Structure formats: structure tokens, C-alpha cells
Amino acid sequence: MSFTTLGMVLGFFGGVGLVVAGTGxxxxxxxxLADRLTPYLRDAPKPSxxxxxxxxxxxxxxxxxRPVLVEMxxxxxxxxxxxxxxxxxxxxxxxxxxxxxxxxxxVLWAGAGALLGAFSGVLLGSLAGxxxxxxxxxxxxxxxxxxxxxxxxxxxxxxxxxxxxxxxEFPVIADLLALAVTAGEAPAPALERVCRMCRGELSAELSxxxxxxxxxxxxxxxxxxxxQRTTIDAxxxxxxxxxxxxxxxxxxxxxxxAQAADVREARKRALLATGGRREIAMLVPxxxxxxxxxxxxxxxxxxxxxxxLTR
Length: 311
Fold this sequence. Notes:
Strand content: under 5%
Structural class: mainly alpha
């Protein structure tokens, strides 16, 4: 790396440091609502740490960098938007809703991507014999953007995987609940029995609903909250059947068996559709790899013979 490139890198980071230091000056700092309310709430008792959610700790470095990360997360949230989508997916994932922490994770992923992209750009430039600062910045920016969007994609992938697990668990829980109701138990005790017997995402959601009911909420409202969090049609019909049985006393076992059968049929159709798509995908290596090699092996001896005869 030449002295000119080194000077450009040091000047860039020095300029970023001056900008960060300048924005932190009290005269230039934007006054937040929390800063205005803090003097009036200073004597208020702090809530118990047992009620606070668990947040990842990065030690002293994390405490020092957190204000900068929070500010950058706020800027990213204003630029990107979509806070409602993030809340909906976090609810569907079953984690505490915290958009600010998610934006901080996106900023950290973007920073890691930028460092990795800059290192890759400098390494490739060194191997090529010339390091272009513009190319390094473009690679770093592209990697940062990929990291920022990759965290959002990973959240969607986690929600999709959890939905698949819930759908796979649903027929078993519906059948067990139908057996318990057929044996003479009421819907609420039957739910408690099934939740004690099963371990999975759906049983965890139903256990959470029962815990909310024991804490003072009504069981129908807690079950409706489960349907709203997961946003799965089959689970919504399942909850509606339980609510109708609780409110009107209608027979529940046949409805649950029918819903379990419907979910199994839907899973079969999804597997058949996935198999059809995989068959089409399997044609790609056959057509573009195996078939050309086979044709080459069949034609190469003839081409060699023709070449020798023409000499």
C-alpha cells in the first residue's frame, strides 16, 4: 500500500471521527424527549431487573459504543422504515418486540460487512498489484448493504422456520386435545394436559396463553392473542373452534379431528408441490453438466479420428 493510499484511509477515518465528535457537542446535539423528562423522573424508583428483558452485553466497549449505535439505529429506522413489519415478525417469532435492538443488530451486521468488504477489497487489490480506493469503498458499501439487509432476511427465515414447526406440530396437538375432550375433560384442562405432554413451538404458545389466563386475562382473549401473533390460518381456525366450544358448549372433538386432517392434507399438498419444484431443479445439473459431458465423451473419439484422417 502506497503512502498516498494510507494517507487517504487515515484521512477518511479522521474525518469520520471529527464528525462523530462534532455531533456529540452539547450545543449541536439534538435534545431528545428522554433528556427533557429525565430531571423530573430522576427520583422515581427503578423497576426490578427481573421484569426487564435480557439484552446482550458487550462489556465496557458495548456501553461506550451504545449511544452511537442507538443514534445510527434511529437514522437507519428513519431511512428504511418498516417498523410495523419488524414488530409483526418478532411477535410471530415469539421474542420480545424491540425494534431498536433489531436496528442495532442490523447496524452491527452492516459494520461487520463493511469491514469484511474493505479487507477483501484491499486483499484483492494487493494481489492485483494496485489498490484502488474507489473500488475498496464500493466493495465495503456493497458488503455493508448486504449485511444490513441480511439481518432482515434472517429474521424472515426464522419466522418461516417457526411457522413450519408449528404446522408440523399442529395435527398431533389437535388429536391429543380431541382425545382429552372425548375422555370428558373441559377444553381448558385438556389444553393444560396437552401442553404438559408436548414440547414444541405450538405447545409453548398455548402454555403462554394459559399463563396469561392464570395471570388474570380471559382464556378466549389469550387464545385470540396466540392466533394474532402467529398469523397462521389453520391455527386461527383451531382457536375459533376452541372459542366456540368454550362459549356455546358445542362438541369440540370432531372439529379438532377435522382440522388436524385438513392440516395433514395441506402438508401433503405442500410436499407434492415442493417435490415438483425439486424435479424441475434437478434438470439443471442434468441438462447443463451431465448431458454435455456425455455428448463430449460420445463425440470426442470420432472428432479425433476425423482429425487424424484429414492430416
